[in-house]
Amino acid sequence: MSKQEAAPPPPAPPRPQTSAAVKPRSRRPGVALHKGESGPIFANAVRVAGMVARTLGPFCEVAVHDFSDMQHSLIHLEGSLTGRRVGAPVASMVAKALRRGGDAVEDAFAFASTTPSGLTLKSSICFLRNGRDEVVGAICLHFDLTDLERFQGVLHGLMRFENAPGRELTELFPACLSDTSDSIIETAIRKAGKHPAAMNREEKKQFVRMMDEEGAFQVKGMVQHLARAMRISIYTVYNYMRQIKEEEQGKGLGGMEE
């Protein structure tokens, strides 16, 4: 009996053809793949754009531009403030800056811009460069300040005071009578710009006059508190008050004689 010959192995499956026309799909929708030297630059720019957009939320837009095709430079977009889409041309401001500066163009930060719909934006542009320091693209950030501007107007109205010019009105909320006296004296010291203990005789009298004009002596026990603060006797405070009253009466009589 003859020995049977071994069956030939099955043919190997055909290898898939690698055609240059077949391009791998982007891992993220709307992001074009980049080949060559600039590929990692734009890949990192897209990652940064996503990070910024997720950090700042819906009030920002981040755009990545590839200047190899200025008519369709927008290759990735996070947010939708300007109404643009992937494939849009480069903005006129960027094109003008490139014309003037070329590869030496400088980044621009925190400048004002306005959308066609009327949004007020705070914008920044950072140009992307390859290993030869050539500008190959840009990453642009826009932040919507429209609602903040409206809120600023509301805050301005709420925080506006209507004090008479040159006259400061301050409301005090003391817990006890002693707090009232101390607060009034501290306010007067701030206005005088000098502690009464360091004043000369005439300055002390003027300080008492200022306290009297502010109605301080309507508070019970104010004379005693003031004497301690000024480091003088109660009788000296009363003496200043008497002199001030006599001076005012003298002015009044002088006016009547005229």
From TrEMBL:
Annotated Transcriptional regulator DauR-like HTH domain residues: 182-242
A Pfam family matched in the record: HTH_22
Superkingdom of this protein's organism: Bacteria
Region (Disordered): 1-35
Residue ranges of domain YheO-like in the record: 45-152
InterPro entries found in the cross-reference section: DauR-like (IPR039446), DauR-like_HTH (IPR039445), YheO (IPR013559)
Bias (Pro residues): 7-16
Protein name: Transcriptional regulator
